[in-house]
Specification:
By secondary structure, this protein is α+β, with helices and mostly antiparallel strands. The protein has helices spanning about 1-25, 30-60, 65-70, 105-110, 120-130, 135-140, 150-160, 245-260, 280-285, 295-310, 315-330, 330-340, 350-365, 365-375, 385-395, 405-420, 425-430, 445-460, 470-485; strands at about 70-80, 85-95, 100-105, 175-190, 210-220, 220-225, 230-235, 235-240, 270-275, 290-295. Strands 8-5-4-9-10 form a five-stranded mixed beta sheet. Strands 1-2-3 form a three-stranded antiparallel beta sheet. A two-stranded antiparallel sheet has the order 6-7.
């Protein structure tokens, strides 16, 4: 900290005084005062980081324990991008006497991989922005003064691994009803395995569509505020991904594991699944016992519109008749009514449209009945709005092209973000394959050695000790903390 103390005494205090004087002369320039202070405090922060890193490296150089096993090979400068800005500092390359291997021991202690330029806080800031906007913006917001390329952001996201929710509440919640809602978004691919592998159909359309899946669990719906007309979900939890085949079963198993670990399922009267009845969703129903499918309102109304759009002024009455048939009558009654409506059509396109809509409702007959009856805890669904908010807003609402890996990782990152996940914790979860330093099983420096080292260093502080008080016990603590990391490798 000596250099930081010097910098603060010789540079910062003088600049702070000048900035305050200017502000006192012209109080209207408060913006300039704040901006100037921010810049100086920012520079001080970078100086402190640089000073701390070089102090740690100096301790490595001077350590008698290190000298038993490692020799100094060379010195170099390194730039490290932090969320505060770029820090330039000097570090030392050491060579192991027994193995001949060389390593920057400081990098090892800091947990920085070979050729890594970003600190964990900078990576967390990168993800925090990229998950909401774009790779480019993520690169720009990585640091207050330094940006990285969108390719770097892409690489970081493609390498992500996500932890499973292993939180175990002290007591499982007891609720009468649970709700699972499922839907999907369609994103555009640049390629599937490699560039140029997208095949064009006879209609000159490429098979570049990828389904990204959304499932979220909640306990019901409540008002945002006592007098508000807006609603919100109660304790929602999100799952997103791109999964097929066995992966789809694993995806739904993850949903069940969350339910089982957070709720006393024996006390739940019903678990309702609101969806459009897609094949991947229905296959998931088999993974969760006792689930009841309810057709979501958006798709039910969509297909009712297809059955009645040609009725013009009578469309609303015809739709009400169909709803009544679904709610309280039989499939035969519903089919007879659609046959009657079909008599008002003569073109094949319209008849084909009606046939598709009729088959869709019949294949989801019980689910459609439950939706229209609204009994036994059935709530309105919000799948379309959530697909837009969770996936489309980031992945498909604007022209974008994804790789399969990119779409998979971003959809998972969106779920992690909306579940309140800490980006710094996510960065620390990643496995960093750092090379192991052979021969690093050393003893911790003794208190006698530490005390002697501090006595020798004490004179360097000089007049600056009069400005800022530093006591030996604090310095001893720092050295003990640091050496426990050095020799614990």
């Amino acid at each position: 900290m000596i250099n930081s103390i010097k910098y603060f005494e010789e540079e910062c205090i003088n600049k702070f005084e000048k900035l305050e004087n200017k502000f006192m002369e012209n109080p209207l320039q408060i913006a300039e005062y704040v901006t100037g202070l921010t810049a100086e405090l920012h520079n001080l922060g970078l100086q402190m980081i640089k000073d701390s890193l070089e102090s740690m490296d100096q301790m490595l150089q001077e350590s008698p324990i290190r000298k038993k096993h490692w020799v100094v090979e060379s010195h170099t400068s390194k730039q490290l991008i932090t969320s505060l800005g770029t820090v330039c500092f000097d570090k030392t390359l050491f060579t192991n006497k027994e193995t001949g291997g060389s390593e920057y021991l400081l990098d090892r202690i800091l947990g920085i991989a070979r050729n890594e330029r970003l600190t964990e806080d900078a990576e967390a800031r990168l993800l925090e922005e990229a998950v909401q906007t774009s790779y480019r913006r993520g690169g720009e917001e990585t640091s207050l003064t330094t940006e990285v390329s969108k390719q770097t952001v892409k690489n970081k996201i493609h390498q992500l691994k996500f932890p499973k929710n292993e939180e175990q509440p002290e007591k499982k919640k007891e609720v009468d009803y649970l709700y699972i809602e499922a839907d999907e978004d369609h994103v555009s691919l640049q390629f599937r395995e490699k560039k140029g592998d997208l095949i064009e159909s006879k209609n000159n359309q490429k098979n570049n569509c990828l389904i990204t899946k959304l499932v979220y669990v909640h306990e019901g719906i409540e008002n945002e505020a006592p007098k508000s007309k807006r609603h919100k979900l109660v304790n929602p939890y999100y799952f997103c991904g791109v999964s097929r085949g066995k992966e789809n079963n694993d995806f739904w198993d993850e949903v069940y594991e969350y339910l089982d670990s957070h709720y006393d399922l024996r006390k739940v009267k019903k678990i309702y699944l609101n969806s459009d009845g897609g094949a991947w969703i229905k296959s998931g129903m088999k993974r969760i016992a006792g689930i009841t499918h309810v057709l979501d309102e958006f798709h039910l109304e969509k297909y009712l519109t297809k059955l009645t759009s040609h009725m013009k002024d009578s469309r609303s009455d015809a739709a009400d008749e169909l709803r009544t048939a679904i709610r309280s009558k039989t499939k035969e009654d519903f089919e007879a009514l659609t046959e009657l409506l079909g008599e008002y059509l003569e073109n094949e396109t319209g008849l084909s449209r009606m046939k598709e809509a009729r088959e869709y409702i019949l294949s989801n007959w019980t689910a459609a009945k439950l939706r229209l009856r609204h009994q036994d805890g059935v709530k309105g669904s919000s799948t379309e709005g959530h697909v837009s908010h969770v996936l489309s807003s980031r992945m498909s609402s604007r022209p974008m092209g994804w790789s399969v890996t990119g779409a998979t990782k971003m959809s998972q990152l969106r779920a992690y973000y909306l579940n309140g996940g800490d980006m710094l914790e996510l960065i620390r979860y990643q496995e960093k394959e750092l090379p192991k330093a052979v021969g690093c099983e050393y003893e911790v420096l003794s208190s006698k050695q530490i005390f002697a080292s501090e006595v020798n260093r004490h004179g360097e502080v000089g007049k600056y000790m009069e400005c800022i008080s530093h006591n030996i016990s604090l310095q001893n603590k720092k050295i003990i903390y640091f050496n426990s990391h050095i020799w614990g490798l």
